[in-house]
């Protein structure tokens, strides 16, 4: 064959080779694991994407996920013994397994296939790498899509909206989560581009753990985080927009008092029968045998009966149990490319709680008090937080407020939006939204009753400090450890101690006077103040309570100096006894401990007004360690393409032997975020592992 004839033949082979390479790679699903243990999933369709995401979560958290799914089935005691009996009883009482099956059947065919694929990814991972999963946990296999929905119900509806403590005590309890969130408009941004700060606060374990990932398919290119075991991202951004969530003060669960009569209960003057069901619960014994107990579930028209006392019963009614579309909604939020599409995804109101803060490349910022809110015929917030009468239809809500009824704010003149688990009225300042325009039962009527008043005020002040913020300045402010409460009360406490206290109180006053008001690792005086503030009874502490006219500077003053000084002297004596000196550094007393890491902490309790939130528990060595607080942190500037930095404070894995257990904790201690890698060249430059999923 001559060269002239050979050339077209060679060119045709090259053309075939070039055109078949993308087709060949497009048939594969890849997970690129970067050097921080973050999975970047590339798939040619969304079913394969969900399957790979299930695989990835099992790689990072397999033991934890299987245990959580076993608990969500209400069969954990059957698998692992009596320690899980209380959990199983709660799950069965709340009807989670049965309702999860109903929810699965109510999903769209497309979403069912996605959930099935996520479950398949979990099962196939364990099948391929059985030695990586603890043997007892395999009893829960195979995982099904119903398990995923049961797990989501257990976490969101029965630990966030209500929880076992509320059910046991018949009282409203504190929210099981926190968070900071900021959305910055171009007018407030030095770059002229909108920015977003995502910063959830949750316990550092169990089903509260976040998981960071990137998801790429023809339908989506999202980066963010989700609660472990959930198949869609809950906080995320793409090339066009992003959003974050904060727990909001919403009343998603009500307790009704019923009057018992003739084996039933009174409703509208007549006796109604309970619906009764008895379920068996197996309990595995240490020798491998089983014993069996049972639970009888009684249900009234209001909901499941959670307690009976003499001639009274108490029933729990939880919002949104008839709305199974949260997965679909979150998936569509991640697919949106502008505010209109994003709001279209939100309008079904399937996610039963969480404030949403949003920013986009067009420069829009947006806030929504997102919640499934019953349409109630009577009562205000305080009325519904107590036990309500169940003998009348006047208190029995059956419908929810539509999207247009919820507090919502777009592009306020201030150029910023914030939320720190406060009600909508402080989403920007001066306030734009007013409680007068909404039902009195919607949420807390003012900032005063939130329990987070100082953190909210600190957040607002951080945003007000600068006319415009750079991306780097926004990140630096996230790591602010100043205690707002200290600024509010030390000007009264220090002079009083110098004038009225015993010698140790006078010494404490000198330490507090020299303190920098921060909770940095090297701050001296922070331990003294924080332990004093956490010991003293907050009710009635301040002589001037919060008021609307002094929004950011009240409460203030000291109402009872004798008590304040007595507590200060007692705490000072205790600190000196335990640590040998009164001006012990914060980092010596408070430790960041996760996996094999043990580092001095910077950051403090949110209730004291710290924006860098670390809530503490006592450790065995007379120190305090972080049990709750900053978890996933993401800062995004909506340039083209977006610039982002993030941190999973405790690392992106809990599997034994993983190098990513606690591997990001040192960055957190230093007040740093890591770059987010989203393009293949960036990821491949920091590649730890590449997997191909069939």
Automatic annotation (TrEMBL):
Its cofactor is Ca(2+). The lineage of its organism: Bacteria, Bacillati, Cyanobacteriota, Cyanophyceae, Oscillatoriophycideae. GO terms for molecular function: hydrolase activity, acting on carbon-nitrogen (but not peptide) bonds, in linear amides; metal ion binding. InterPro entries: Ntn_hydrolases_N, Pen/GL7ACA/AHL_acylase, Penicillin_amidase_A-knob, Penicillin_amidase_dom1, Penicillin_amidase_N_B-knob, S45. Ca(2+) binds at residues 251, 254. Belongs to the peptidase S45 family. The active site is at residue 179. Coiled coil: none annotated. Keywords: Calcium, Hydrolase, Metal-binding, Signal, Zymogen. It comes from Gloeothece verrucosa (strain PCC 7822) (Cyanothece sp. (strain PCC 7822)). This is Peptidase S45 penicillin amidase. SUPFAM superfamilies: N-terminal nucleophile aminohydrolases (Ntn hydrolases). One of its GO terms (biological process) is antibiotic biosynthetic process. It holds the Pfam family Penicil_amidase.
